Amino acid sequence: MRRVVPRPRPAGLPAVHAAVAYAGAARAVLLAHKERGALRLARPLGTALAAGVRASHPRAPAAGRAGRAALRGGVRVCGTGGERVFLVPVPSARGAVVRRGHDPVRRIALVAAERLRRGGIRAELLPVLRQRRAVADQAGLSAVARRRNVSGALEVVRGGALRLRAPGCRVVLVDDVLTTGASLAEAARAVRAACGHGPLAAAVVAAPRDAFEAGRAPAHP
């Protein structure tokens, strides 16, 4: 479980932690869940995401092999005190949700919140982001094109800002995979624009090996 930094790093991207490298078995599991409707895989993926959320806490201990264990269902997430943690998923495009028959990030985040609560963290799924305009499929786009594609595309739903401003809460943006960081940076912009939120954190299941800080990516799960 380590910090990941895409290069170039988009402006406004919060600190992001990932459980595993987007390669090998992890990539296969993520694609099977997202594109082929293997919904049973939401549990190990959500468990891995929970470990990433835990690692994003400034007082979190080193997680060691937790990411790889998470994909095998073997991670236990410890508590972080009395604060509430809001998991805010990056929303999928409406067309993609219809085509897939489910929203993979929201499903994984729901499992992650449940795992965190079992570990003593007051976690809650808070799906307050929505797309305000259509965006193109990000696959195959360059980092610059991805940023342009999603720039200004997200907004906080009515009433969402009030929830995000709740006292004693920490907001963690969540997604399944970090590629260029454009989507998470846009999600952070939308949250800050709606409620002037202070420091944000972000967590994903997987990221490219070369995005792991200091080039020390974990081994394939």
Describe this structure in words.
Helices cover 36% and strands 19% of the residues. It contains eight helices and eight strands; from the N terminus they run E-E-H-H-H-E-H-H-E-E-H-E-H-E-H-E. The radius of gyration is 16 Å and the shape is globular. Residues 60-64 and 72-81 have low confidence and may be disordered.
Provide keyphrases for this structure.
221 residues, alpha/beta, Rossmann fold, 6-stranded mixed beta sheet, two-stranded antiparallel ribbon, 8 helices, 36% helix, globular
Topology readout:
Blueprint: E1 2-4, E2 15-21, H1 24-35, H2 42-55, H3 66-70, E3 84-89, H4 94-100, H5 104-118, E4 122-125, E5 129-131, H6 143-150, E6 154-156, H7 160-164, E7 169-177, H8 182-195, E8 201-207
Parallel strand pairs: 2-8, 3-4, 3-7, 7-8
Antiparallel strand pairs: 1-2, 5-6
Radius of gyration: 16 Å
Number of helices: 8
The tally of structural domains comes to 1
Determine the structural class based on helices, strands and strand pairing: alpha/beta
- DSSP, total strands: 8
**Shape designation:** globular
Average pLDDT reading: 81
- Give the quaternary arrangement of the chains: single chain
What is the makeup of the main sheet?
6 strands, mixed
Helix residue percentage: 25-40%
Strand order of the largest sheet: 1-2-8-7-3-4
Strand content: 15-25%
Q: Could you tell me the CATH topology label.
A: Rossmann fold
Low-pLDDT segments: 60-64, 72-81
Assigned CATH class: Alpha Beta
Looking at the overall shape, the CATH architecture is 3-Layer(aba) Sandwich
What letter string, H or E per element, gives the SSE order? EEHHHEHHEEHEHEHE
Distance N terminus to C terminus? 12 Å
